[in-house]
What we know:
- The chain is α+β, with helices and mostly antiparallel strands.
- The chain has helices at 18-27, 64-70, 112-126, 139-143; strands at 14-15, 30-37, 40-51, 54-60, 74-87, 95-106, 108-109, 145-151, 154-160, 178-181.
- It has a single domain (11-162), classed as Pnp Oxidase, Chain A (Roll), CATH 2.30.110.10.
- Strands 1, 2, 3, 4, 5, 6, 7, 8, 9 and 10 form a ten-stranded antiparallel sheet that branches.
Amino acid sequence: MSDKTRIRRLPERAVTDVEVIHAILDEGFVCHAAYVVDDRPVVIPTLYARDGDRILLHGSNSMGLARAVRSGSPLSVAVTLVDGLVVARSAFNSSANYRSVVVHGLGKILEGDEKAAGLDIVIDKVLPGRRPDLRPSTDTEVAQTSVIELSLDEVSAKVRSGGPSDDPEDMELTIWAGVVPLRLEPGEPIAAENLVPGLEIPDYLRPYRR
């Protein structure tokens, strides 16, 4: 752990177990990537996938993130899973249950075969089983798409779970306290209005699971 990844606020929530960190990254598929352009900070959401000891960020080749990586801007990428609202007896002690990972480093724009393999990895991670059904990407589509590699060398993770941590003097108050669980639940797939008649929902989409 370096100064860059050391958790100073509530360090008891820090997580260093690599398997737990990987599990958090594998459950999510949207991250927020921060970079610097024209001496100002920018944050954007984008799809990602973990592949071993790296994450792959997916986006447009003309997006600011790709341009920032080419110019050498450092990146900071955050993934957060919210598991519940912690309802305490006071506003100060109210909180949220969450699992979060932040990755720091310099990104690398993948090209050629590495880029093609990276695109396949993102599809396979986000929608397992989908890739064999897709038509091949055109050269123009590939050229317009970027895959940015960011190693997991500089990572910090933090987890909060359980109920509210109210002050002892608040325990006898007649105020309800507890947790409101939150989950991201996939719904029934909705067919496109212009779908060719007679096509059934693929097995890998019913039910969809992370």
